[in-house]
Amino acid sequence: MSAKDKLNLQQIPQHIAIIMDGNGRWAEQRGQERIFGHKHGVESVREAIEGAAEIGVKFLTLYAFSTENWNRPKDEIEGLMELMIDAINNEADNLNKNNVRLRIIGDTERLSERVKNKIKEAVDKLNNNSGLTLVVALSYSSRWEITETVKNIAIKVKNAEISIDEIDENLISESLKTNFMPDPELIIRTSAEKRLSNFLLWQASYSEFAFIETLWPDFTKETLFETINEFQNRERRFGKTGRQVQDDK
Ligand code: IPE
Ligand code: IPE
Ligand code: MG
User: Fold this and answer.
1) Candidate list 69, 96, 98, 198, residue with the active-site label
2) Of 142, 173, 230, 240, whose CB count within 10 A is highest?
3) Which residues surround ligand 3, an ion (CB under 5 A)?
4) pLDDT tens-digit map of 92-108
5) Separation between Cα atoms, residue 31 and residue 44, nearest integer Å
6) Whose CA is nearest to atom 8 of ligand 2?
7) Is the pLDDT of residue 156 over 90?
8) Whole-model pTM?
9) Catalytic-residue membership of 21
């Protein structure tokens, strides 16, 4: 029996976010260059998207490149950017057929013109789709996002568009780059590392975390379904007691 058959389809998370980690180690285990792992990671991206779409997930956010990843060796960064362009070229039609919408979050100004143009082309092409929204965090970090948001709110206060009293949690959420999506119920990180690495700090306030051992290039739909199964067996209490949660059901 596949892990998919065990899922409670009434309780599929609306938003799953994945920190795709372990490509370098996967390649090293095979005596290969790191980029070999990144290449294989593209297949896992396809698995994750297809799996999420199959079970009706609304938003899938993939952490593809962090602000801190700009500190990697130049040839690895260039290899990753080339892979990104190839992946968009190869996958755009398929995403379109599957009714997938694409959004990018991150400091895209730091990307090359070529990468920026390619992304824009793909976002425009998929813009009218209404199925799964694929969110790619690219040149993203949560502290960068929050800093930008604070600046934007400060400008509004300065221009007397809003008063300080109007600043509340909702206004902050609505002012973030991620304002088009709900907070992720589930954040998965592969490769057994147990940290957020500057990912969705605000949005993860009440997320469930799954730190799984699988290295990203080994991640399949089945891995996704197994992880969601485990998530569905948890009790999310949001500060209440277990008793209250049971009574509310
Ligand atoms: C994740 O794999 C991909 C990116 C961060 C771009 P890594 O490249 O971090 O792989 P490890 O962690 O070194 O194994
Ligand atoms: C986090 O992975 C960023 C992405 C998955 C894109 P890293 O492998 O760069 O994270 P750290 O530096 O080990 O925490
Ligand atoms: Mg890593």
Assistant:
1) 69
2) 142
3) 21
4) 999 999 999 999 999 99
5) 20
6) 21
7) yes
8) 0.98
9) yes
